[in-house]
Amino acid sequence: MYSICMKKLALAKTVADLDAQAQQKACLPPLVLMESAGLQLFEAWKPQLSPHDRLVFLCGSGNNGGDALVAARYAYNAGYTDILLILLPKEGSVSYQKQREITQAYGFETLLWDSSQTERVQKALDAATWIVDGLFGTGLSGALGTDVSLLVELANKSPAKKLSVDIPSGLGDEVPVSSLHIQADQTVTMGLDKLAMFHPLSRAACGIIITVNPSFPPFLMERQPAAALLCERNRARIGVLSSHEYKNSRGHVAVFSLSEQYTGAARLAARASFFARAGLVTLYCDREVLPIAASEAPSLMVKVYEGQALPTYDAHLAGPGWGSGREALLKTLMETGTPMVLDADGIRCYAQMIKQGVVLDHGPLILTPHLGELRALCDACSLPFDALDTPSSFFTTLEQLSLRLHATLVVKSSLVHIAAEGEKIIVLEGLNPSLGVGGSGDVLSGIIAALLAKFSDPVACALEGTLIHQAAGRLAHQSRCYYDSETLLSFVGKAVGEAEA
Q: Distance between CA 65 and CA 70 in Å, rounded?
C-alpha cells in the first residue's frame, strides 16, 4: 500500500543490470545510451546556463566521463563555447573512446590531469562558472585514490557551481560517507534514483536531484527491484473526522515525561498531540513538578505516576524529558501492550535495558531516534561500530533493527527514514533546515502518538505524522522564516487540516 507516490531507490548493481539489459534485451548499443544520457544531462542543465559561462568538465574514463563529453559537445553546439576538458589518464571503454575522438575533432581545449598540473588546474577551476563532475559513477567500491582525491579537493574549493553526472564522484553503496566526494549543487541522475544519495550524510552533497531517462525502456525499468522507496508526497492523508466524533472517540494519549530537569519536552509533545487531533491527553509527571505542569497546560489532565495501576489508553508516548532511571516505568508501560511511541531518553533507556539482556515484550512500537540514539540502539543490539557508515550498511542496519526490535523506526536527520518489519524503508526528504530546532522532535513524537491512538498501522502513523510535521515546518517557515518549537506547534493544526483535504 505504501508504493503509491513512491520512487524506487536502486543499488549500483541494479543500475548496472538495467544498463546491461537495455543493451542485451532492447538491443540498444552502448554508444546510443551514452549519447542519450549526455543529451538528457545537457537539456536538464541548459536552463541554468548563461551565454558567457566558463564550463569545465572533469571526465573519468567510464560511462560518466563519456556522458560528460557528450554534454560538452551539446553545450558547444548550443553556443556555450568557453569549455575546458580535464581528463583522467586512462583509455576507458570503447564508447568513451569514441566520444573522446569526437571532442578531439571539435578541437576542445583539453588538459590531461596529473598532480604536477595542480596550480594550473586550480586556476582553471577557480575561473569556472560551472564544473561538471563526470569522474566516477555508482560502481565505486572504495575511497578515491590519492591522485584523484587531489582533483576533487581542488574542485570542491572552487567557487564555481558544480553539476554531477549520475552521482557525485566519491559516493557509492559501499563507500563510507565520510570519504572525500564532490559537493554538488545539482545532480542529474540516470534512470533510477540511487540509494547511495540518500544516506543522512550524503544527501546534501547531491544538491538538487533531477532524474532523467537515458533511453532505458520503461518495461525494463519497471522490473528493477527497489532497495528502498523515496516518498514523493508532501501532503499527509488522514481523512476528515466523522461528524459524530467527540473527545473520547478521537483517541486518548498518555504522555509519560516531565522530570524536574526537563519541563519543556513533555509540554511540546502533549500539545502537539492535541493539535494532531487527539481528543484527550493525560500527562504523567514527577511529583515535584506537578504544580508547574498543571498550571502551564490547562488542557491536559496532569497526574503523578508512583507505581499505581494504569487505566487503559489508546496510545502511550514515553521518553521526552525523562532523564535517567526510568527502567521500571518503561518495563511497566511495555507490559501493558498499549501502542507506544518511544522518543529521546526513552530510547536510550530501552537500549540500555536491551544491552543488559532484559527481555521486553510490547505492543505496536514506534521509535523516533536521531542518529546518536540510533547508534545507541546499534550498540545495544551488538551491531558493528561502522554499521551506519556506508549507504548500503545504513539501510541494512535499519532493516535489521526493525526486525530485532519488532518496531517501526522513524530515524530523524535532515532526511527521515522509516523502517518497519517486512516493509521497504521509506525515505522522506523535507530538506527544511528551519525544523532543526530544539523541541522539534518532541512535536513530531506528539503528532505520531495522536495518530497511533486513532489508527492501527504504525507505518502509516509514522509516515503521515512525519508528513504533517514537515508541512507544519514549511508553513511556519513561510510565515515566520525562523521560529522556535512553541511557534511550530501553532502550525500543526493547520497542517493536519490540509491533510484532511
A: 9
Q: What is the mean pLDDT of the chain?
A: 94
Distance of alpha carbon 161 from alpha carbon 165, whole angstroms:
13
Collapse the DSSP code of 222 into the 3-class scheme (helix H, G, I; strand E, B; otherwise coil) and give the result.
coil
**For 154-192, how does the pLDDT look when each residue is reduced to its tens digit (9 = 90+)?**
999 999 999 999 999 999 999 999 999 999 999 999 999
Residue 77 in grid coordinates: 553546439
Q: Are the beta carbons of 188 and 45 closer than 8 angstroms? A: yes
Amino acid at residue number 173: D
- Sign of the four-CA dihedral 215, 218, 224, 230: positive
> How many other CB atoms are there within 10 angstroms of residue 6's CB atom?
17
* Cα–Cα dist 177/369, whole Å: 20
Instruction: For 389-450, give the secondary structure using H, E and C.
Output: CCHHHHHHHHHHHHHHHCCEEEEECCCEEEECCCCCCEEECCCCHHHCCCCHHHHHHHHHHH
Contacts by 352-358, CB closer than 8 A, 24 or more apart: 352/327, 352/376, 352/380, 353/327, 354/380, 354/381, 354/405, 355/379, 355/380, 358/327, 358/331
Q: Return the C-alpha cell found at 271.
A: 500539545
Q: What is the pTM of this model?
A: 0.96
For residue 147 the three cell numbers come to 591522485
All three cell numbers of 496, joined, read 493536519
| Domains of the chain: residue spans and CATH | 6-231 (3.40.50.10260), 252-500 (3.40.1190.20)
Write the CA distances from 261 to 169, 211, 258, 265, integer angstroms: 46, 48, 8, 10
Q: Which helix (H) or strand (E) holds 130?
A: strand 130-134
**Terminal alpha carbon distance of the chain:** 20
Confidence of residue 460 (pLDDT cuts 50, 70, 90): very high
